[in-house]
Every structure is written in C-alpha cells, then in structure tokens.
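Protein details
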Amino acid sequence: MLMLLVELRNSKLNTVWLNKTHVLLTLVPTPIGNLEDISKRSLNVLLDAELILCEDTRVTKKLLSLLSEKNNLTFSCSDFKSFHSHNEKQVLSTLTPEDFNKNIVYVSDAGMPCVSDPGATLVQYCIDNDLEYDVLPGANAVLTAFAMSGFDHTEFTFFGFLAHKGKERQSKLTQVMQSSVLSILYESPHRLLKTLEEISKIDKERTIFLAKELSKKFQKTYKDSAQNIYEKFKNENIKGEWVIIIEPTHFEGQPLAISDIEELDIAPKIKAKLLAKMKGLKTKEVYQELLAKI
C-alpha cells in the first residue's frame, strides 16, 4: 500500500513537471463582456502563471480582480509586463529562450489574442526558437457574430478595423464590397455611422448584419438593407463596440485574371499599368518585360 502511494505521488509529480515544462507559453482568451465566458481551463492556466504578458496591465489586473471575487480564487502572479502593438518588437528584442523557463501567459484586453489583437509576433518567436506554446479556445466576437447573423454561408473574410480615412480606407472598403464571400468588420461607435453611410452609397440594397456589445448587458443585433440600417442609425444610440457582417456581392461574373490582361490586344503602356496594379509591381518594370517579348 505504501509503495502504491509513493508510486502515485511520484507519478503525479512527474505529470506536473511535464505539464510545466512542456508548454512554456499559453495564449489565453478573455471574456468579451460576460465574465462567465471564461473557461475553467483558462482560469487554471492563469492561476499557475508566473509571468503575464498583457495588452494593458491595468485592464488585466482589473479582470483578475473581478474573476477572483466572482470565483473565490487567488491569483498569485505579481509579475505583469506590457505587450501591445506599439512595443511588441521592442519587448521581443529583450527576451531570450531562457526567459521562457517558467509559466508565461499572454492575454489581450478582451477576446482571442492574435485576432485583431497583438500576440502573433509572440507566437512566431516561439516557432523560431522551437519553444512549446499553446492557444486556448474561448470568447471571440468574429465567430459569435457570424453564428448570430443568419447568413447561410460557409466562408467569410475578416478585415478587422478599417483605416480611419484616406485612400487606404477607400481601397479596403472597395475590396470588402466586391468580395464574393461574407465580409466581417469591427467598428468603433465613433465611425459606425460613417461606415454605414459609405456602404449604403456603394450598394444601398446590400444586406448587412450588426451586433452591438456582444455578451454584454446591452447586446443588440440588427439585420436589414444597408440603406434602411443607415437611416435607422441616424437616430440610434450607437455607443459600444460593433461587429458588421456584409453580404457578398451578387456579381456572378468570373474575376479578372492576369492571363486575361496579358491576352488583351491593347497598347503596351496601358497593359503594363494594368498588370503592374494586379501584380503589385512597378509599371516601368512590367513595361520593359512586355517590350522584351515583342
């Protein structure tokens, strides 16, 4: 009996040791609104954390305080380090693989790390340095809104936030509106009405779905034509964070391919401009290639 207890104890210690050393970094999703959306597995990883990298240390500390109170837990980690889009390269340059000889957790402010949030460079660092890492499943506004939208499509493209203004915004919105699959965007309350207006100007009959404050107290959804949604929101309370899902274009023609342009009997300079645009090359470079083939 004593030998059995010793074997069980040694087995448990070995398991703990293996678990601790096998995964060096864990990316943990956090609730996008409702605290009850945190998983038990995520809580366990946070309880064992020795270093927490976070998008905003203040937000993460507040979250842990709320989770501690709600679940009667004590999070012992006292080492928090800021890791966000403006300093991630700088932070990574100070790290060595030896720094990962402890339980490191990364969390963004809300939702899934790496999905319109920092974290991807941290994952790539682990890949480049042959370090073990894991990503836990959890709350995500993109998939939640997709499931709520009622669109009968199996494909979508997530574009994140549009640029605030300029050619970059116009170019991306054109790409969204010409997409042959569902397009999903995030939008802030400050620019939502502007985005709805721009969508309705491009195609007022296009069906769109909006989700406000997912999983939170004032969660609300809308689905209608772009024009009707825009008119409604002129007098609507648009506070909070938003997800926009846009119906694919109804254009049924085949997309233009590079080979289609190459086969056109048009002036080389015009052809070079079109090909350069599609290939992302300089017009002069493409023009010289065309002349060499003549």
